[in-house]
Structure formats: structure tokens, C-alpha cells
Structure to design on (898 residues):
């Protein structure tokens, strides 16, 4: 009968289960007493030893019923029970748990921070429509790798290149907003009427510029950025139609741009454009004659061009068509072949982020390496913990737990640790993103767009899942091979661990060392590169110099005489401030701006056929050379003799003299600036040493300096925006308030902007490689620390597991030094293997740093040798500390235990 068979089967099962429970209880009591005795041999009192044994076996007792009920429980219930067991187990070892969580938090937090940078800078969409159809247009010729467009080129590319649908022109500058209580100097741009349409963005309020406003002498108009509208005009919609004061003149506001809008070149500058004005130029304003473009040989270059491509066209197609068109111009003798003129387009995303893309990807790769090291370290810690738990796991197997059940339990522990690490990592990522935004260079594109957002939480969860898998797989494999008969027999604790079980731990340590070597080599290369940059002589002395920018608008200073008088009065007053040793003014601040060139005619010099005589130009006032500490090679510097009515004077750099006045005394030579009939001839009165103006690593070109009072004599050549430079023997920032007070005394209507020291300017010029160096240095230090912890852990484990062996060796006469050597041997082998692998990986990977390095090769032998020595020293120290315990092995303690 079926019911009788079921009843009998149930009774038998109940009997055997109770019998099994009695036997298990008796066995557990026996092992509890044995564990207590073993704990007492380690020096614990009987009460402490029994409490530790009860803690070790407490979770096993609670585990028994769950093993018997496993078949009837759902998968979710099983997972919840495993999570509960895992949480209780981890809570009993708070030191271990805290170390693991902190290690994972560093790896996950660093990776999340850099992923936020990657997403905000490289992956987030640009504030334009159909970005893949946008490109920046540039020109290039001998001496200029990438420079502005001319109006002729603008007309030609727009009409003669089939792959281009439209081209928009714009220029950049700065203006004074003089309405309200406080005048303000802001970045401005003159844009063609079609620029916003080419970019695919319209005003948030009001309208764009009309064709009439865009004409020369058209009606004045202004469009505000969203930021200045909110900050200066309180977000008032009624600002559209209102007249604001710009450089002392009234200009009506016709529109407000949406939040986040920037011109393409704003992303790489320290400040975004705040006010837009019409370009106010066209073919008529350039003096064009009827007929095709390039009738005048190209024209002067001073415009930025952005192109909207036709549907289906690519930047490669544009560049091919531009190359064909320029080649035809050369064949028609419109352009000189020796000039090596080239026109090219750059995809908009590359234009904006191309300069930092490689550095960001390298840094993101570095954080991924840190995460892998963290996971390897945690996996190693879990393996060590697993060795200590083998008796517990053996009892679980004896209770009936299957290998899959143990695997699930250990993965539950890894998942809880990874989740806790991810939570802590989110906090570190939040702090890391704030730190990156604060320390990144102001010219770092789109860094302000980096923030914590929901997608980062999903990324962190994915990273935590990966960390749980990477850290849990080896302990789970270790647990699956537990043999209860071997682990539960008395005396198993003293046995030496099997080589296969220790080999995984040693392999992880070698991997950690290899990855650490890879990161430290990258950091070392960047440190050497930045050191080389800082060692370059810029040609001036930046110490103790304060700089600030002012502009004298034509509304208040209508002619050159008043502009020159303003700067003379201001410098005389500044020189009387206590602590000021000298002051001067300059149009373009070195290493903060880029010089343009001017066509020259140098007396006694005939350029080669089809070549010109270009010279980068600079406008200064007396006192500038002394303030910046430029070295005088011959002649004199500008002084009171070079006023408005004095003969036109010029100072050249040493490169100018070498190129155009070789073999002659340059003093007294005459130079004509420009080629128009009213061009003025200057006399060279001095030669100064070369100044690295455009960049520390750029080739110095021929440069000349003209006094403001003389340069302003040419029609339309008055320089209204200049940089005041002030030298002091003390802290230059202490002069900010006194100098601003003097400026208010001279003219309270003028705003002051770009206040900084010249040291800050120099540092800003190498900010990008310095930023990469600092981050790589941090990641390298973390990696080396984690690797040292890994080495320390594996040597400590070897020493602990071989204490019995070391005691016997000591009893047989082994000296302490020999025991230490035996302990060190394991660590040295793993470190040596890791260094070899790390050097090989670094040789292959550091080539990605090539574009970031200066004066050092990606395989620099000095850096590699230094990293190997540093890593070996750190690893040796990490091995020596636990190895010293081997020397204290006492034969008597071993023999008593036996």
C-alpha cells in the first residue's frame, strides 16, 4: 500500500536523521574540545580558547538545519540564507572585512571617478545638432602647423568644396561690461550671422543676428550667454530689447543663448564666451575685387571657421577635396608651392577633446589596473581566510553541503564585500570627481560637465559585480576541493599547506607586482617628462611677477595719445607702491597667448624665391624687459626716449638676428612692418635673448618688439587691451589690492581681469602633462602599496604555515638567518617574476604615453631601472617584516605541541 510505504519511509528517514544528529552532535563536541586545546597551545587562556572555538563552530551549528531543508527551499530563500550566513561570518572578523572593503573602495572609487571623466569629456554629446556633420577648418603653411582662415578661404571653401554645406566665421576677443555698479571684463566673440545655424543651435530668448547687422558698419547688437544673463542680469527675460553698456557705449541685446552652449574653441580655453556680437565684415570690407576667390593670393588670416558638411559627406572627403582645390591654386600660380600651404578640416569631437583624449584613456586604463590589483589583493586575502576556514568548510561538507552550495556561500561573501566596497567607492568617487574638477587645468575641455549621475551608479554596480566574480572565483575553487577526512583528523593544523593551494596566492602576488610595475613606470615617465618641461628656460624670470589685464575702450580713449598717456600714468603710480621694483605692459603675455606674424622687409636681406620674411610681433611699454628679466644681448631696451614723437624703434630677438641679419651688426638696421604704401620703417635699437612665447616646447621664431607709443602711429593700430606686469621682491599676490587701488585712482570705470602671477602662467602652460603626472603618481603609489601588502600577506602565510617545519629546523641546528632566508625565498621568487612580467608589459603599454612625454622616450632605461629598484626594495621590505618571525621559531614549543 502506498500510504504504508510512505509512512515507513518517513519513519526510517526520521530515525536516521535523529541518529545522524546525535552522531553529529557528539562529533562536534569532540572537535570543539580539540579546537579549544589547539587554541590554548597558541597562548590563550582556556576561556578565551573556548570562546574562539565556539565562534568558529557557531555558524556551523546554525548551518545544519539549512542543509537539511535545502531541497525544499526556493532559490531566493537559499540566497537570502547564504547572505545571512555570510554577513554574520564577516561581522565576526571586522578587521579583515574593513581591510577588504577599503581595498575594493579604492579600486572601485578610482575607476568610477575616471569613468565619470571619460563619460563627461569624451562620451557626452556636444551641445550642437548632428555633431558628426561638423568640422573645424584650419590653414597651415611653413612655420604654422595650424592657424586661422582668411576671408578668401572662407568664400572658396563655402562655394567650391562640394562636401561642405555651409561655413560660419567667428573671432574671439574681450570687452568691458560697464553697466551696473561694478565693471567687468568678459570674453567676447564676433560671429557671422550663420554661425549659430551652422552649429544647429538657436537662442533661448530673442533672435540671432540678421544679415544687415552682420555687414560692415551694420547696426550694433549683442547676444548674451546663459551664464552672464543669470549672473549679471539675474535671468531677467526683459533683458532682450534692453541696451547694455559695452566698452562705454550702448548696445541693444537681441537674444540669450541656451545653457551649456559654447563656441568650439571655448572648450579649450579658461573662460567661455559671455557676449556675442555680429562679425560686421564681408567681402566689401576686405576690399575684394569682382571675380573668383583667391584673386588676392589668399588674404590675411584672422578668422576661425566651422563647417557643416552635406548629408553623407565625411571629414575625409572634405580634406581630399580641399587638397585637390589647393593643388589647383598652386598650378594656377595663385599660391606659391614653396609656401607649403594646406587647408584641412578636423572633426568637431576631435577638435574639442582630441588634445586630452589620449591622456584620459591612459588614466582610465591606469585606474582599471588599480582595480585589478585591488581585486587580486582581495582574492589573496580571501584565499588566506579560506585556508583558516578549511576545517569549518570540511564540517559543512560532512553535514551534507554540496560543492555548489559552498561555492554559492563563498560568492555571497564576495558579493557582500564587493557591494560594501562599491558603496564606499561611490563616496570616494564623489570626492574624487570634486577633486578632479578642482585640480584639473582650466583649459581641460568639458571638465565642468563631469558629475555624479545615475548612469555612474549602474557602472559602479557593474564594477562591483566584476569585483565579486574576480575575488570569489579562486576561494570558491579552493573550497570545492575540501576533503573532510583530511581536514578533521586531529593534528591537521600543524600540517604544511599543499603547494597547489599556495600557488594561487603566489600567482596573484606576481600579478599584483607586474601591474604595479606597469603603473609606476608610467608615473616615472611622466615625472621625468614634467621635470624636463620645468627645466626648459623660457627666456624670462617668472618669479615675483604679478600680471593683470586691462582695456582702454575707444569711447573713453578715442586716440592713441590718450591710450599711451594712460599707461604711462598708471605705470608711474604703480612704481611708487612700496615693494614694487619695476612695472611694464605687454600686449601678449608669454606662455598665455599665441603670437601671430607680420610680413617684414629687412634692410639688406633678400628672402629666397617665393618666400617671405615673417616675424612674430609684440607690443610693449618701457619697463617691460626689466620687469620680466629678459636678457639684453646688445643695444638697449625701451625707455623715456621712445615716446610718441621719437623716431620709430624696434627690439628684435636673437633668432631674428640669426635669420635675417646674419654676419651683420643688427643695431641701426631698418625694418618695414607690412607691405602697404603707408607702412612705417623702424630702426633696431636692441637685441634680446629668445623667449619661448607660444609654448615651452615650440620652436622659437623670429620676433620683434615695438613700443606702444610707436606702434600706435599706424592707422588703426592702437592696442587697447594690454597686460600690466609688476615685479616685487616679496609675494606678488600681496600687490593685488594696492595695484587695483591705483587703477581705480587712474580710471574707476576700467575692470581688471586675469589676475595671476607669472609663475602661475608658466605652470598653467604645462598643466595638462602635470595633471596626468599627478594622477598617475597617485595610482602608482596605490598600486605599489597594494602589491607590498600582497607580498607581506603571502610571506606571512608561508611563515605561519611553516612554523612547525622551522621549529624542527631550529632544533636540528639551523641558524636564525637561514630561517629568514628560507622565508624570504618565496617572496623574492614571486616579486622577481612580477617585475619581469611588469617590465615586459610596460615596454608594450607605455608607447601610449608617447604624445604626452617631453624629452624622454617611452622605453627610457633610467626610468625602468629606477622603477625596478624601487619595486624590489619595497617588496623586500614587505617580505622581511614577516620573515623575521621565522627566526623566532622555538624548538621547545614545536616539540611540546607534538
Amino acid at each position: 500500500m502506498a500510504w504504508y510505504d510512505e509512512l515507513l519511509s518517513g519513519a526510517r528517514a526520521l530515525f536516521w536523521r535523529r541518529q545522524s544528529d546525535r552522531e553529529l552532535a557528539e562529533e562536534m563536541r569532540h572537535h570543539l574540545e580539540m579546537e579549544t586545546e589547539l587554541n590554548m597551545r597558541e597562548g590563550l587562556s582556556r576561556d578565551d580558547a573556548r570562546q574562539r572555538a565556539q565562534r568558529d563552530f557557531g555558524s556551523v551549528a546554525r548551518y545544519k538545519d539549512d542543509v537539511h531543508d535545502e531541497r525544499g527551499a526556493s532559490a531566493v530563500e537559499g540566497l537570502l540564507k547564504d547572505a545571512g550566513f555570510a554577513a554574520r561570518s564577516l561581522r565576526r572578523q571586522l578587521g579583515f572585512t574593513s581591510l577588504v572593503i577599503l581595498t575594493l573602495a579604492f579600486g572601485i572609487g578610482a575607476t568610477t571617478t575616471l569613468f565619470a571623466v571619460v563619460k563627461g569629456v569624451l562620451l557626452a554629446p556636444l551641445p550642437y545638432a548632428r555633431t558628426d556633420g561638423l568640422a573645424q577648418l584650419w590653414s597651415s603653411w611653413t612655420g604654422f602647423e595650424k592657424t586661422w582662415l582668411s576671408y578668401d578661404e572662407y568664400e572658396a571653401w563655402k562655394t567650391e568644396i562640394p562636401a561642405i554645406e555651409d561655413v560660419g566665421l567667428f573671432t574671439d576677443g574681450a570687452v568691458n561690461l560697464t553697466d551696473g555698479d561694478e565693471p567687468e571684463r568678459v570674453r567676447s566673440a564676433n560671429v557671422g550671422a550663420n554661425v549659430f545655424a551652422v552649429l544647429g543651435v538657436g537662442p533661448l530668448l530673442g533672435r540671432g543676428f540678421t544679415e544687415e547687422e552682420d555687414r560692415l558698419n551694420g547696426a550694433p547688437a549683442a547676444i548674451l550667454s546663459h551664464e552672464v544673463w543669470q549672473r549679471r542680469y539675474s535671468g531677467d527675460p526683459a533683458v532682450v530689447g534692453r541696451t547694455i553698456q559695452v566698452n562705454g557705449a550702448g548696445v541693444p541685446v537681441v537674444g540669450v543663448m541656451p545653457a551649456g552652449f559654447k563656441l568650439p574653441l571655448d572648450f579649450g580655453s579658461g573662460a567661455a564666451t559671455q557676449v556675442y556680437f555680429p562679425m560686421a565684415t564681408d567681402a566689401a570690407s576686405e576690399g575684394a575685387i569682382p571675380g573668383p576667390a583667391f584673386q588676392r593670393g589668399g588674404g590675411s588670416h584672422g578668422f576661425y571657421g566651422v563647417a557643416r558638411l552635406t548629408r553623407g559627406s565625411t571629414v575625409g572627403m572634405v580634406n581630399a577635396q580641399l587638397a585637390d582645390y589647393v593643388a589647383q591654386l598652386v598650378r594656377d600660380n595663385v599660391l606659391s608651392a614653396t609656401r607649403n600651404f594646406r587647408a584641412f578640416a578636423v572633426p568637431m569631437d576631435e577638435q574639442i577633446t582630441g588634445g586630452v583624449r589620449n591622456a584620459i584613456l591612459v588614466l582610465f586604463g591606469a585606474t582599471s589596473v588599480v582595480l585589478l590589483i585591488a581585486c587580486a589583493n582581495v582574492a589573496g586575502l580571501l584565499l588566506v581566510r579560506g585556508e583558516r576556514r578549511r576545517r569549518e568548510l570540511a564540517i559543512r561538507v560532512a553535514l551534507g553541503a554540496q560543492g555548489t552550495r559552498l561555492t554559492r556561500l563563498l560568492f555571497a561573501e564576495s558579493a557582500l564585500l564587493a557591494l560594501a566596497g562599491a558603496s564606499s567607492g561611490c563616496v570616494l568617487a564623489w570626492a574624487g570627481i570634486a577633486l578632479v574638477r578642482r585640480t584639473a587645468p582650466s583649459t581641460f575641455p568639458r571638465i565642468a560637465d563631469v558629475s555624479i549621475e545615475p548612469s555612474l551608479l549602474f557602472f559602479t554596480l557593474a564594477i562591483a559585480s566584476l569585483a565579486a566574480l574576480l575575488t570569489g572565483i579562486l576561494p570558491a575553487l579552493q573550497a570545492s576541493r575540501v576533503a573532510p577526512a583530511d581536514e578533521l583528523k586531529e593534528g591537521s593544523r600543524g600540517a604544511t599547506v599543499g603547494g597547489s593551494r599556495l600557488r594561487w596566492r603566489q600567482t596573484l602576488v606576481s600579478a599584483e607586482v607586474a601591474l604595479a610595475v606597469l603603473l609606476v613606470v608610467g608615473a616615472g615617465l611622466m615625472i621625468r617628462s614634467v621635470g624636463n618641461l620645468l627645466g626648459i628656460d623660457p627666456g624670462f624670470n617668472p618669479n615675483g611677477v604679478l600680471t593683470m589685464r586691462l582695456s582702454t575702450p575707444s569711447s573713453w580713449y578715442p586716440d592713441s595719445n590718450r591710450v599711451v598717456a594712460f599707461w604711462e600714468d598708471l605705470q608711474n603710480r604703480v612704481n611708487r607702491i612700496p615693494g614694487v621694483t619695476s612695472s611694464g605692459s605687454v600686449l601678449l603675455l608669454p606662455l598665455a597667448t599665441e603670437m601671430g606674424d607680420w610680413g617684414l622687409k629687412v634692410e639688406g636681406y633678400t628672402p629666397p624665391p617665393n618666400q617671405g620674411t615673417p616675424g612674430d610681433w609684440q607690443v610693449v611699454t618701457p619697463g617691460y624687459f626689466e620687469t620680466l628679466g629678459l636678457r639684453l644681448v646688445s643695444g638697449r631696451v625701451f625707455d623715456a626716449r621712445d615716446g610718441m614723437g621719437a623716431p620709430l624703434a624696434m627690439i628684435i630677438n636673437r633668432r631674428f638676428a640669426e635669420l635675417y641679419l646674419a654676419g651683420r651688426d643688427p643695431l641701426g638696421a631698418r625694418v618695414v612692418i607690412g607691405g602697404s604704401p603707408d607702412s612705417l620703417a623702424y630702426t633696431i635699437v636692441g637685441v634680446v635673448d629668445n623667449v619661448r612665447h607660444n609654448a615651452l616646447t615650440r620652436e622659437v621664431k623670429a620676433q620683434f618688439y615695438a613700443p606702444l607709443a610707436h606702434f600706435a602711429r599706424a592707422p588703426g593700430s592702437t592696442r587697447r587691451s594690454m597686460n600690466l606686469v609688476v615685479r616685487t621682491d616679496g609675494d606678488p599676490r600681496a600687490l593685488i589690492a594696492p595695484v587695483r587701488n591705483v587703477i581705480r585712482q587712474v580710471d574707476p570705470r576700467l575692470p581688471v581681469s586675469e589676475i595671476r602671477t607669472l609663475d602661475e602662467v608658466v605652470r598653467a602652460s604645462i598643466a595638462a602633462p602635470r595633471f596626468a603626472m599627478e594622477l598617475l603618481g597617485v595610482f602608482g603609489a596605490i598600486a605599489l602599496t597594494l602589491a607590498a601588502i600582497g607580498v607581506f600577506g603571502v610571506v606571512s602565510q608561508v611563515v605561519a604555515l611553516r612554523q612547525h617545519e622551522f621549529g624542527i629546523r631550529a632544533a636540528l641546528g639551523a641558524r636564525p638567518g637561514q630561517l629568514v632566508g628560507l622565508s624570504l625565498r618565496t617572496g623574492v621568487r614571486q616579486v622577481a617574476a612580477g617585475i619581469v612580467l611588469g617590465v615586459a608589459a610596460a615596454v608594450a603599454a607605455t608607447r601610449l604615453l608617447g604624445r604626452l612625454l617631453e624629452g624622454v622616450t617611452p622605453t627610457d632605461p633610467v626610468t625602468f631601472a629606477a622603477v625596478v629598484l624601487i619595486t624590489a626594495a619595497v617588496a623586500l621590505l614587505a617580505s622581511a617584516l614577516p620573515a623575521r618571525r621565522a627566526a623566532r621559531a622555538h624548538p621547545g614549543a614545536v616539540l611540546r605541541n607534538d
Observations:
- The chain has five domains: 2-68, 75-127+354-495, 143-339, 523-537+760-898, 557-748.
- The first strand starts at residue 134 and ends at 141.
